[in-house]
Specification:
The chain is mainly alpha-helical. Helices cover about 85% and strands about 0% of the residues. It has one domain. The chain starts with a helix and ends with a helix.
């Protein structure tokens, strides 16, 4: 079981990071929709740049979220991986996703005003 290998605290951090990653993906899909509507009306280079920016950020967030989910769905984790080695990348990814959530929320709010 995953809890026995990595501990309940790290497991909570991983679940929170996954939830934040999913929220980031949802915000980016909303931004892409808004930018696409704007591009159809304006057709400017700036709007194309926003579409590229949001697309690459969406891809990055999907990959990070998948990377966070993998330890939760793997039935066996090698015993050579210690608790601290396994948990530290997920804590970093948690804070990266949290910061991106704040930044994307601000961008989404400004974009829809």
């Amino acid at each position: 079981m995953v809890t026995e290998v990595i501990g309940p605290t790290i497991l909570i951090v991983i679940y929170l990071a996954v939830a934040i990653g999913i929220a980031n993906v949802c915000l980016l899909v909303g931004l892409l929709y808004t930018y696409w509507k704007t591009y159809k009306e304006v057709k400017s280079k700036f709007t194309i740049g926003l579409l590229y920016f949001a697309t690459f950020l969406l891809i990055q967030n999907i990959l990070v979220t998948i990377a966070l989910i993998i330890p939760l769905i793997l039935p066996v984790i090698p015993s050579e991986i210690s608790h601290s080695d396994f948990g530290m990348p997920h804590i970093a990814l948690f804070f990266i996703n949290l910061i991106q959530l704040v930044a994307l929320s601000i961008l989404y709010k400004i974009t829809n005003e």
